[in-house]
Design brief:
Order of helices and strands: HHEEEHHHEHEHEHEHEHEEHHHEEHEEEH
Structural class: alpha/beta
Distance between the termini: 40 Å
Bound molecules: pyridoxal-5'-phosphate
Number of helices: 15
Radius of gyration: 22 Å
Shape: globular
Number of domains: 2
Helix content: 25-40%
Length: 447
């Protein structure tokens, strides 16, 4: 890698790099912070300043930054065989072994892995597979997908339309306006409206069933949901919600897709949270981010035996499942994933999260002493904070005040990175952090 003067990097960045979720207006004026090094739970910028990474890169660097073991696994796979296509009948060792490993770690009969390059492509693949599945079953009208307001599922065209966050839609178009429909977020802070959790859950399940009946059960194919909404602001559903939604899916012959891009690989103290924490086994499970701890892009769409049985039947055209990416099952990415899983096992990382996670949640409750904090919630290493201008009516601050951005800037000055999203703040640190690190994040927020 060549070395560049920082000024040259700034200039190249400003003039040529279209950043994801770019704020064009402010971007050119401020210039980017250049992150140059990362180790453990810390990142360093080009000025030499060190920060506690309270968001694990972007909900993904679960085993921490700078892992030599993963670098070694990746480099030895590159030296041995860096790429050959997986189409048809060729395969590679890491892709096959990782698929078996995922099948053994996932609950129920989630035994069949379709690889992609990240969370968006894994979700896109899921929707194509769902459509193919119902075509195979001779139900070509069953195509509509129900998603949720405030859910986040990615930025490819279909995934962006599955996403229910209003701010991500502004200026962009909808694809197939009648394909994707949204129901309410399960948001016990704002949505509950004084109802008990049980009543609120009844309301959400009832709304879902009414929507299916309105669209026509013969037209509705699947429901997609994150176990806990991440980018929506760490929204936690009332107890029993996911398994009841799944029951409704079964009643109307629909598939339940669990988007565990954030909630898998230890963030909630489990390999996967759907069964372990929310009491149901989805028909399709979506993975990305933590699967390689963010070291190399990889996504996975995992199918139950029942779904796989249907899509693997020969079909009338010429019997080929004509779906796949050049990089489906990329050997280097799969090697990184295998090493990530090994690290998590060797270091008992799930136990560690079960230990530090509740501490973070409990310690963060002290933020409620501030009038501008309406709610502090989450589970294990997913923490969400709602900023309000009025606690009684839970009203947020006007967008123009950039309230969460102000908090973000102050935290950064004090050496901690958190993530501002509208009036919400989220924290999702590397899983290896200590209880003291948890306290540092909260103390800096408190300050
Ligand atoms: N699904 C969820 C729940 C996510 O949080 C994200 C990204 O944040 C995605 C899907 C999209 O993943 P990617 O950005 O890797 O395409």
């Amino acid at each position: 890698m060549r070395n560049f003067e920082h000024a040259a990097v700034w200039e190249a960045d400003r003039d040529h790099f279209i950043h994801p979720y770019a704020d064009f207006a402010n971007f050119k004026a401020e210039g980017s912070q250049i992150i140059t090094e990362a180790n453990g739970v810390h990142i360093l910028d080009s000025t030499g300043r060190k920060y506690l990474d309270g968001i694990a890169g972007l909900w993904c660097v679960n085993v921490g930054h700078g892992r030599e073991e993963i670098a070694n696994a990746v480099s030895s796979q590159i030296m041995k065989m860096q790429y050959y296509n997986p189409f048809g009948h060729s395969t590679n060792v890491p892709a096959a072994i990782l698929a078996r490993e995922l099948a053994s770690l996932t609950p129920g009969t989630l035994n069949h892995v379709f690889y992609s390059t990240g969370g968006s492509t894994a979700n896109d693949a899921a929707i194509r597979i769902v459509h193919y599945y119902f075509n195979q079953l001779g139900k070509p009208n069953k195509k509509k997908i129900i998603s949720r307001i405030d859910g986040y599922h990615g930025a490819t065209y279909v995934a962006a339309n599955l996403t229910g966050i209003h701010a991500t839609k502004i200026g962009f178009d909808a694809i197939g306006r009648d394909l994707i429909h949204h129901v309410s977020a399960a948001d016990t802070y704002r949505g509950g409206d004084g109802r008990s959790d049980e009543e609120y859950c009844d309301f959400l399940v009832d709304e879902f069933e009414r929507r299916i009946l309105q669209l026509g059960p013969d037209n509705v194919a699947a429901f997609i949901a994150e176990p806990i909404m991440g980018a929506g602001g760490v929204l936690v559903a009332p107890q029993g919600y996911h398994s009841r939604m799944h029951q409704i899916c079964k009643k109307y012959d629909m598939l339940y897709i669990a988007d565990e891009v954030v909630t898998a690989f230890g963030r909630l103290g489990e390999w996967f949270s759907s069964e372990a924490l929310f009491g149901h086994v989805p028909d399709i499970l979506i993975l990305a981010k933590g699967i390689t701890s963010g070291y190399i892009p990889l996504g996975a769409t995992i199918l139950s035996d029942a779904v796989h049985d249907v899509i693997s039947q020969p079909q009338c055209v010429d019997g080929v499942f004509t779906m796949g990416f050049t990089y489906s099952g990329h050997p280097v990415a799969c090697a990184a994933a295998l090493e990530t899983i090994d690290i998590m096992k060797r270091e008992n990382m799930l136990d560690h999260v079960r230990n530090v996670g509740p501490h973070l949640q409990a310690y963060a409750k002290k933020l409620l002493r501030h009038e501008i904090v309406g709610d502090v919630r989450g589970s294990h290493l997913m923490l969400g904070i709602d900023l309000v201008s009025n606690r009684q009516n839970k009203e947020g601050f006007p967008a123009s005040s950039h309230a969460a951005d102000v908090v973000f800037a102050r935290c950064k000055e004090n050496g901690v990175i958190i993530r501002p999203i509208g009036n919400r703040i989220v924290v999702s640190p590397p899983l290896i952090l200590s209880k003291t690190d948890c306290e540092t994040i909260v103390d800096v927020l408190d300050d």
